[in-house]
Amino acid sequence: MTNAVEIGASGAKVEEKLFQNRYLVDAGRPHIQIRPHEIPSKILLSLTYTCPAGCYSRNDRGQVEIAADGCLECGTCRIVTAETGEIQWEYPRGGYGVLYKFG
Amino acid sequence: MIEERFDAIVVGAGPSGNAAAYTMAKEGLKVLQLERGEYPGSKNVQGAILYANALEKLIPDFREDAPLERHIIEQRIWTMDDKSYVGMHYRSEDFNEERPNRYTIIRAQFDKWFSRKVREAGATLLCETTVKELLRDAKGKVIGVRTDRDNGVAFADVVILGEGVNGLVGQRSGLRSELKPDSVALAVKEMHFLPREVIESRFNLKDNEGVVIEAMGTITAGMTGTAFLYTNQESISVGIGCIVSDFAENGATPYGLLEAFKNHPSIKPLLANSECKEYAAHLIPEGGYNSIPELYGDGWIVVGDAGQFVNAVHREGSNLAMTTGRIAGETVVWLKRRREELSKANLAEYKRRLDETFVMKDLKKYRRIPAFLHNNKHVFGLYPKLVAAAAQTWFRVDGADKLSKEKEILKSFRKGRTLSGLIGDAFKLARSWR
């Protein structure tokens, strides 16, 4: 655990990685939404580190927020929260979202 | 959307959907293929290795114009600790053959090529179209799909779902249960560009020869997973993946893990001075045979990753996708020719045919492996450390006599895992492998 956290903390910023990618953002129509909550569950909190695009973060009141513009559409958050129903996950509208040049 | 009625609708333009659509269109069926990306491949991610055999069965002369990167002449399998790797390398001139067996590919380019073949065969492709749900008649038979386009419905005798691992259509239509976090891996990957001659000198290659590295060990920080590095013509694909539930419990970030792997002393020199041009993430179904859902029903068939068709042990998936897609297509063509209904009873032929192929035989052979790996995490942490330490003890010449070295190595294994633990692991692995 400690080792893993250190790896995460010392790693490159995920924002720099996402900067390489092409996206067509569907402005104003986020394809993922978090159910409103006061105190985030352990599962919801886990998304702040399992999301490979770093889309999830905690705001100053401790709630988990999402900025889905950099989403890689892998579905990890959808699967992890499937039982609790804490997020609403749809594919972006046809043509929108990440556009892999290489894949 | 499209008024005419189709023989078949294929959801997805990846390897499984393309194989299915190609097979049916080539035989004269009216096929509509729907893809949510801007172009086929724009949502798809793979290492990627192409297995020639599965594609040859569809397009025998694919080598003439498919965008292939390098044919693989050397396979390296590494077990790694923090400072070293112990490797098994196999390189053979036999792989420099007229019709090479495995190639590295870049999926976005390959999928575009494959899709062009599908359209040339006569299928209609609609991109930028996300399928939202299956349409059924009063008896529950699937008769078409609803998409996110205006008036976006289309009808067909059968819907083939090649929608990938995160396949919402089948899931939300109740065709299969939700993926479980402990039977699916999250993999992240980067594309690193280097001049062709640099890659060739670093990996001892000429012409279009290629090397692939598959690695496991402390690089996954105690989680069940593997890493890879594949040589393309002018780029290197490098990535790492672990089981999703392990990520959730462990606290590691996928990108942190990837950075650590790239900075491993055995990997870093291979990537030196490269330029990263893309970062991707994708899920991989890892549950194997026991996770395969219902594969067919009244008016529908599931192919590829959506059906969990991945052989985790051998890192094969795209060939299973193409094979299941082809066989689904052949089954539909066969039933159509016989003027039979595409009912559940008749589509059982798809499963019967699959059972006769390597797809089902291999997945069945390894059906116990996913549970073994899930319940024996020391395979990914402790053993690589012990193996690396043993190799160092063995190779370092330091005045100690060889018998003492042998004893030290054996002692380290017994101390690390106990004798009964070692025997138990060997037994469990052998049984799972059988």
UniProtKB/TrEMBL annotation, chain A:
Keywords (A to Z) from UniProt: Electron transport, Iron, Iron-sulfur, Metal-binding, Nitrogen fixation, Transport
Ranges where the ETF-QO/FixX C-terminal domain occurs: 49-100
Stated role: Could be a 3Fe-4S cluster-containing protein.
Keyword Transport: yes
Lineage: Bacteria, Pseudomonadati, Pseudomonadota, Alphaproteobacteria, Hyphomicrobiales
Superkingdom, natural source: Bacteria
The protein's name in its UniProt record: Ferredoxin-like protein
Molecular function via GO: iron ion binding; iron-sulfur cluster binding
Family as reported in the entry's similarity comment: To ferredoxins from P.putida and C.tartarivorum, ferredoxin I from A.vinelandii, ferredoxin II from D.desulfuricans.
Gene3D superfamilies found in the cross-reference section: 3.30.70.20
Cross-referenced InterPro entries: ETF-QO/FixX_C, Fd_FixX
Ranges in coiled-coil conformation: none
TrEMBL record, chain B:
Cofactor(s) needed by this chain: FAD
Domain of life assignment: Bacteria
Transmembrane segments: none
MF annotations from Gene Ontology: FAD binding; oxidoreductase activity
Limits of the ETF-QO/FixC ubiquinone-binding domain: 206-283
Every FixC-like C-terminal domain range: 370-434
Signal peptide segment: none
Keyword Hydrolase in annotation: no
Keywords from the named record: FAD, Flavoprotein, Oxidoreductase
Function (record text): Could be required for the formation of a functional nitrogenase Fe protein. Probably accepts electrons from FixA/FixB and reduces a quinone.
Annotated family: Belongs to the ETF-QO/FixC family.
Name this protein carries in UniProt: Protein FixC
Source species of the chain: Methylocapsa palsarum
